[in-house]
Design a protein that fits this description.
The complex is a heterodimer. By secondary structure, chain A is of the alpha/beta class. Chain A has 20 helices and eleven strands. Chain A has a nine-stranded parallel sheet. Chain A is globular and about 75 Å long. In chain B, 32% of the residues lie in helices and 22% in strands. In chain B, the strands form two sheets. A five-stranded parallel sheet of chain B has the order 5-4-6-7-8, with helices on both faces. Chain B starts with 18 loop residues before the first strand and ends with a helix. The chains are: A alpha/beta, B alpha/beta. The interface between A and B is medium-sized, with 36 and 32 residues.
Chain lengths: 527, 246
């Protein structure tokens, strides 16, 4: 590991161990529950898709019926396997029959356990094999493509029309972008279902649907052929349907997912329990699918002050890391988030940004850090914003960031024009090339401003983690320790979707998804 | 240099040169024809002697242009009348003092980012304790009782909560402006308030990067605040307007 900051090893180890215990506290209860969206994700993995006559997605129809009858705590798959055995139909046909009112969910007979278990295990293994196939496909395409140049250039498209998004996504790839995120409708995170089919409307972006994933994937695969580079597709595995989005992304070969453990609680006021249970299942899928997740610590700095609360980002990264490990994600799959959001008027602000970015780099040496651009302090002065974005790019190349979400010169004005992305890529391309090895040439002054700032951040983060361990993460969220936002334990959306698991709860997927983790590599890390 | 305020032209480096710069993209591949198309488009915009100083290939059949030209048009600056908030901004201490002296009760404010908008950066800057750019937010004002309801709050819920708290003022922030969703949303809020007969019981104030005072007035609000607004600007308006209406 680089140790340019002269960090105290004991503090780092202490912080990581504390975060690990915080994650253990949560895992004391997370596995006692399932949620409606976890069970819907299971239905989706088994191929249930489409909508009923009223436009309600079939996974919702099925899960809602089971929930109404109090059957969900046994797990959807045990019911579905019995239904398939007793009717001779497949999963999709059963969902359709339930939607049409031709099949009463309470009327499925209890068959011998070994019979339905055998079918359930087989269906789950087949679903997992589909995900593995998509993973292999990605690995092969990446191996055949030109090697990555880090930091990877990440841009967003957000036209609100998926067909227009597909065009802009491809154009961005041709201009040099490595990663394309299709922004979704601002309201989707609060929908307790995933919309169906191609969509051409929405504000701030259109919906995340499986068909929309397919449409943009196809367009980017064309760009891969044309550029010889592997172009990664990103969407949002957040909100009330994290597990379902993960399932869809795994099946459609998305490459990255915004998938934070606490974002929904803080920024969407989703129930704490619901989010923590859902994040675990969704991350198991992402881990198994070889998807790189992006965490959302950057958001803390848009509500709280980036200089004063920089340490909350570090503390949260430690927690996100520990929770992700427990869901089978490798460090190489954790795009831990942070941001360049210190007020540009601050004297030596650039030094403070370097300290924070370098600190993240040294604390999480294997993780592909996701670095977010300035948004809070940029205005309609596009010329000034373009320069600040240049400084952001400079800090990134100096400190070895890996996923660079490019700042747009029209931030705070409108969703990006096609030319805004071009100019952003040009800005980053110039700086990354022109200062490619600057980081290797730099050592920081012993006890200088940068080292001192990093030590303060790490120390504060460790203290915060210790406080959280003492009171528990839930209490910490209630007290507003992150992002200055307070969330009550019992409040928030989606609470009704949390269901205690019955003793005979059946869901073979976690075992399949985490099986890989029992195999250790040469360093004793989970593969 | 004497500027004729009834005929103001854009200024580059010489009075009345009319110099302007613009950039745009055309959905055609870069090339001589595209460059000429950009020049002709600038001519149609009314620019004289347009010069395409940069053409870039954006791929996928798009090209980007930077164009300079001279705009022959003038505006009558002297005749322009813009409705302005009549109040001068007071400081944090002055506002609190004003409340104690003039209103003699705490000022209750309900604030939210409404509709599907999840961007709380604006409302947080104005309301949260910390404030923005060194100015404390409304939560910090001892004479204010501020409720920040957060993001994605339906208009109806914002109104219900405002009534529940006995709000003197409702603050609504709109950041997402795609397809003018902010206009629909703001209009709906006022219509709902009118339908429920509470429009005149409290001040309605809109804010956001694309909001101006003029626009807010047009939509039926009492005031609008755009970029650069600090918490004390909003606080000053609220207390002075409440005093005026007393």
């Amino acid at each position: 590991m680089d140790n340019k900051l002269n960090l105290d090893r004991a503090t780092i180890d202490g912080a990581r161990a504390t975060a690990s215990r915080i994650a253990d506290q949560l895992h004391g209860w997370i596995n006692l529950y399932t949620t409606t969206t976890i069970e819907r994700a299971v239905a989706r993995l088994l191929g249930v898709d489409g909508v009923d006559a009223a436009g309600v997605p079939l996974p919702n129809v099925l899960v809602d019926r089971l929930h109404e009858k109090g059957l969900l705590g046994h797990g959807l798959l045990s019911w579905l396997a019995r239904a398939m055995l007793s009717t001779g139909r497949n999963a999709q046909e059963i969902a359709e029959a339930v939607a049409e009112g031709k099949l009463d969910v309470a009327a499925i007979p209890m068959l011998p356990e070994e019979k339905w278990r055998e079918l359930g295990d087989r269906l789950a293994a087949e679903a997992a094999a589909k995900i593995t196939a998509r993973r292999r496909e990605r690995e092969q395409m990446m191996a055949a493509a030109a090697p990555d140049r880090k930091p990877l250039l990440y841009v967003i498209v957000a036209t609100g029309n998926i067909y227009e998004d597909a065009v802009q996504a491809k154009a961005a790839a041709l201009q040099g972008a490595d990663i394309i995120a299709v922004i979704r409708h601002t309201g989707q995170s609060l929908l307790d279902y995933v919309p169906y089919g191609p969509t051409t409307e929405g504000f701030g972006g259109t919906y995340a649907t499986q068909e929309n994933f397919r449409i943009v994937r196809r367009s980017l695969d064309e760009a891969i052929k044309e550029t010889g580079r592997y172009i990664r597709l990103v969407n949002y595995c957040s909100g009330l349907c994290m597990p379902e989005i993960a399932a869809m992304g795994a099946l459609e070969r998305l490459d990255m997912m915004l998938n934070d453990a606490m974002y929904g609680i803080l920024f969407r006021d989703i129930n704490m329990r619901r989010t923590l249970i859902d994040q675990h299942f969704s991350r198991m899928i992402n881990g198994f699918a070889g998807i790189v997740i992006n965490t959302g610590e950057d958001n803390y700095l848009t509500t709280a002050d980036a200089y004063e609360k920089g340490y909350t980002v570090i503390a949260s990264q430690f927690i996100n890391e520990q929770l992700a490990l427990r869901s089978g994600l490798r460090e190489e799959q954790m795009g831990l988030g942070h941001a360049f959001e210190i007020n540009p008027a601050l004297e030596d602000g650039l030094l403070m940004e370097i300290a924070q970015a370098q600190l993240c780099r040294e604390l999480f040496p294997r993780s592909p850090l996701k670095y977010m651009p300035p948004t809070k302090h940029v205005t309609g002065d596009i010329f000034s914003t373009y320069l600040i974005n240049g400084m952001f790019n400079l800090v990134s190349i100096i400190t070895g960031q890996e996923i660079q979400l490019l700042g747009m010169l029209t931030e705070a004005i409108h969703t990006p024009f096609i030319s805004d992305r071009y100019l952003a890529i040009k800005n980053a391309g110039y700086i990354f090339n022109n200062a490619r090895h600057l980081g290797e040439e730099i050592t920081f002054k012993e006890q200088g401003r940068i080292q001192a700032r990093a030590a303060v951040l790490l120390g504060q983060a460790y203290s915060l983690l210790q406080e959280i361990e003492k009171i528990g993460l839930e209490e910490a969220l209630e007290r507003g320790l992150f992002a200055d936002i307070k969330r009550s334990r019992e409040g928030g959306k989606g609470k009704d979707g949390v269901v205690p698991k019955e003793e005979d709860y059946y869901n073979p997927f976690p075992d399949i998804f985490l099986r890989r983790c029992h195999i250790k590599d040469d360093e004793g890390r989970a593969c | 240099m004497k500027v004729d305020l009834s005929k103001v032209k854009a200024y580059g480096d010489t009075l009345n040169d009319g110099a302007v710069q613009l950039s745009f993209t055309l959905p055609v591949p870069a090339g001589d024809e595209a460059r000429e198309a950009a020049r002709q488009l600038a001519l149609k915009m009314g620019l004289e002697t347009p010069a395409v100083t940069e053409m870039a290939d954006l791929g996928a059949g798009f090209s980007f242009f930077v164009v300079y030209g001279r705009c022959p048009h003038t505006v009558d600056y002297a005749a322009i009348k813009i409705p302005k908030r009549e109040h001068e901004a007071m400081s944090f201490e002055e506002v609190n003092e004003f409340v104690r002296a003039e209103l003699k009760k705490k000022v209750v404010v309900a604030a939210a980012c409404t509709g599907t908008d999840a961007h709380t950066v604006g409302i947080d800057a104005i309301v949260n304790m910390k404030g923005y750019a060194g100015e404390y937010g409304l939560e910090r004002y001892p004479e204010f009782e501020a409720y920040n309801l957060g993001s994605q709050v339906p208009n109806a819920e914002l109104l219900a909560r405002a009534v529940e708290h006995g709000a003197d003022a409702v603050l609504v922030s709109q950041v997402v402006t795609q397809k003018n969703v902010h206009l629909e949303n703001l209009t709906e809020l006022i219509e709902l308030a009118e339908a429920e007969g509470i429009r005149d019981r409290m001040l309605f104030i809109a804010g956001g990067p694309r909001i101006s005072h003029e626009l807010a007035i047009e939509l039926g609000f009492d005031a609008g605040f755009g970029p650069g607004t600090l918490p004390n600007h909003v606080a000053s308006f609220i207390v002075k307007e409440l005093a005026r209406r007393k």
